[in-house]
Please model this.
Amino acid sequence: MALLDELLTRIERQGPLTLADYMGLCLTHPQHGYYMAGDPFGAPRAAGGDFVTAPEISQMFGELIGLWCADTWLRLGSPDPCLLVELGPGRGTLMADALRAARALPGFPEALRIHLVEVSPALRRQQEAALAPYSAGRAVTWMDSLAALPDGPLLLIANEFFDALPVRQFEQTADGWAERVVVADGEDGLAMALAAPSPLNASLIPPGLRGAPAGSLAELCPQGLSLAAYLGARLAQQGGAALIVDYGPAVPTAGATLQALRRHRRHDVLADPGSADLTAHVDFQSLAEAAEAKGARAFGPVEQGVFLQALGIDARAEALAEAAPAKAEEITAARRRLTASEQMGSLFKALALTAPGLETPAGFPERHPGRDPT
Ligand code: SAH
Model:
């Protein structure tokens, strides 16, 4: 309730909140934000937690991403030192699995300088514990944002990070695009309302949606777009590659996708702010365009199932099952969950952003020349 009271006071003093302001406060408010204190992640088959992410389903996910990083490092010319950055590492599981797999390539682990972008003090502690066995006594640096990252070639991983970045929503009306905002409902709760339409909103809407009929909704993620633009410029100037894995459509689609999840169930977005995870589909095409506009190249998005299969998940699953026959069924189930299209395989996608001139990264199809930006 503490966050609800604070939001109502803000609205009374300063007027309606944009949905992005609301989502940002619900997730990362220093005292009451959803990610700040708790552990939202559930074990795959346990009832706990609010949602399950790919690295928590199976070690294969982080291992294959670790090998993707090792392979990309070779394509970059084996820079030493090389920054290895993860955005929103959660429990630290993906990075621990990736570092274990990275030991297969001599020289690679030693070259890495690990930086974790994480706002939650509680999750930072979990990440530190998870990484202790794999970071080989080397320093791991935590930061609140990429702004503090030192210069140098970069390998960056972000799994289910962009879907947690605040989104704004707009509705097409007879008088132009109007923003959806959060107001007080007059009964100590929150409600959604529509601000006055403004001609300034149109430039924010993805071009393919601008002429959508009245009643259409458009959702966009300003922080995600500026992060992609920052990465694009940085990769173009200093070298490296970024791998973004998340859920969403390949091209921008009309409609609102923001949802709240609690205990694996949908929850009212405006009820009990700070108590549920808020997440929205990622617009991969707009991220790719923002990075390419700054000089980087984008590959994908490819479906997660296709990506993991190209990286060798089937062989890895077989090897793990041979080493632990009692777990064979569990391993097969995890592989299916990560790759089958009716599970995570199609909705989740991987997008790579790279310095220009780098060959096609592992797991991505060759770029068709026609897709190059003009
Ligand atoms: N990558 C992990 C966790 C995904 S949940 C996994 O796949 O399991 C999102 C993560 O991003 C959490 O660690 C959360 O605390 C962090 N996070 C969310 N918003 C953030 C922000 N604005 N800045 C930094 N970290 C953020």
About this structure: Residues 27-28, 35, 53, 55-56, 88-90, 94, 117-120, 123, 159-161, 164 surround S-adenosyl-L-homocysteine (CB under 6 Å). The CA atoms of residues 96 and 132 lie 9 Å apart. The chain is about 35% helix and 20% strand. The first helix runs from residue 2 to 14.
